[in-house]
């Protein structure tokens, strides 16, 4: 039998396993704090644990570290992009961004993605597997170690669809915010989804303080279905119904993400439809210039984002324009992993 991934266990589960091993319950909390507070990933360095118990822990549990395969630093801003190699030689991306209020980390939730959004590089390299809770946590812990900074904000906007890996993402959020562990406030977490409607209802029930972001990108079903296949399963009206429910249950405002794409979603008629759709909803619109993906032809003309923001403003919709960070280091999700997977394939590797 394989070893148990200790960093994915909650305190209660760890307590039960230690009791089964004939240990005292309080040992679990000590170990939990070594991992989640002191971020010590070597059982031999857990100095208040007896040598005998440390040996038993090594036999029963594993701590899967992430390895920095590539680290790209932007020359324009302080954005740093990490390509991490996982224990099974898969790759994921994590992006560290500096803002006036502190450091924000963009983490991946899956190796690849199944959702097939046309403008997204993650869709091109294909789906491999879900990330475990520990692999999501380790993106934070390893990046903090690597960079020496404290992360104050977290966005689940890297590779993958978080609501397509629901159980692991929820376990990750519970571990991240555990009061005996890292104690990270979920108010400082944003979770972005392409719109898996049943999971939005499930998430609402948990009443977390996080910010739910919806990748909308069009208020027209025909146009949205073309660029986002998920719209064929859950259309805009079903999605907005789920959003209204989410807001009423959690009391939290939703962010709608909208990548302004030439000839797809930036006309006056698009602004009309969006204004009509969002009327009376407690929300905020975040406009994004499309990040160029080599294999695709989607573009955002120079002033298109500001123009569209102006169109929305005239219709009473408040929109902010997302700052583009790390534009010189392919910080758009999935681009670095796709390149590395391709390089390895060319070299006869995985
Ligand atoms: N699967 C989730 C989270 C990952 S993508 C989701 O769909 O929301 C994070 C955000 O980046 C989403 O809003 C996504 O639509 C957007 N995105 C992906 N590729 C992009 C690109 N090339 N240019 C601009 N935004 C992009």
Shape: globular
Rounded Rg: 21 Å
- How many domains? The number is 2
Cα(first) to Cα(last) distance is: 25 Å
Largest sheet: 10 strands, mixed
Number of helices: 13
Strand/helix succession: EHHHEEEEEEHEHEHEHEHHHEHEHEH
CATH hierarchy, class of the largest domain = Alpha Beta
The CATH superfamily of the largest domain is identified as: Aldolase class I
Tell me the number of strands.
Answer: 14
The kinds of small molecule bound in this structure are: S-adenosyl-L-homocysteine
Largest sheet: spatial strand order: 3-4-5-6-9-10-11-12-13-14
Describe the structure.
- The protein has a ten-stranded mixed sheet with strand order 3-4-5-6-9-10-11-12-13-14, sandwiched between helices. Strands 1-2 form a two-stranded parallel sheet. A two-stranded antiparallel ribbon has the order 7-8.
- It has two domains: 4-62, DNA polymerase, domain 1 (Orthogonal Bundle), CATH 1.10.150; 67-346, TIM Barrel.
- It is built from 13 helices and 14 strands.
- The protein is of the alpha/beta class and 350 residues long.
- It is 38% helix and 19% strand.
- Helix 1 crosses helix 2 (26-36) and helix 5 crosses helix 6 (166-176).
- The protein binds S-adenosyl-L-homocysteine (SAH).
């Amino acid at each position: 039998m394989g070893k148990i991934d200790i960093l994915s266990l909650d305190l209660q589960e760890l307590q039960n396993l230690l009791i089964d091993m004939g240990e005292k319950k309080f040992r679990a909390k000590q170990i939990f704090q070594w991992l989640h507070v002191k971020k010590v990933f070597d059982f031999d360095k857990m100095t208040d644990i007896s040598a005998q118990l440390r040996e038993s822990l090594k036999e029963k549990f594993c701590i899967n570290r992430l390895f920095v395969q590539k680290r790209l630093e932007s020359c324009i801003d302080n954005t740093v992009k990490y390509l991490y190699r996982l224990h099974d030689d898969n790759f994921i991306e994590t992006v560290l961004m500096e803002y006036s209020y502190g450091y924000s980390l963009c983490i991946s939730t899956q190796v690849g993605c199944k959702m097939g959004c046309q403008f997204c590089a993650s869709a091109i390299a294909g789906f491999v597997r879900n990330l475990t809770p520990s692999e999501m946590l380790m993106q934070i812990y390893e990046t903090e170690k690597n960079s020496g900074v404290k992360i104050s904000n977290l966005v689940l906007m890297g590779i993958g669809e978080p609501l397509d890996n629901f159980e692991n993402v929820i376990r990750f959020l519970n571990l991240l915010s555990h009061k005996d562990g890292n104690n990270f406030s979920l108010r400082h977490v944003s979770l972005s989804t392409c719109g898996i409607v049943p999971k939005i209802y499930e998430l609402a029930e948990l009443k977390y303080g996080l910010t739910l972001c919806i990748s909308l990108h069009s208020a027209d079903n025909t146009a949205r279905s073309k660029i986002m296949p998920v719209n064929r399963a859950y259309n805009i009206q079903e999605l907005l119904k789920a959003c209204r429910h989410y807001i009423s249950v959690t009391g939290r405002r939703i962010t709608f993400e909208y990548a302004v794409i030439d000839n797809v979603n930036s006309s006056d008629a698009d602004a009309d439809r969006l204004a009509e759709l969002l009327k009376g909803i407690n929300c905020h619109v975040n406009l994004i210039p499309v990040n160029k993906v080599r294999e695709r032809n989607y573009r955002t003309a120079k002033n298109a984002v500001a123009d569209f923001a102006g169109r929305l403003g005239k219709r009473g919709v408040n929109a902010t324009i997302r700052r583009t960070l790390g534009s010189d280091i392919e910080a758009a999700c999935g681009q670095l992993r796709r390149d590395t997977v391709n390089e390895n394939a060319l070299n006869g590797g995985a």
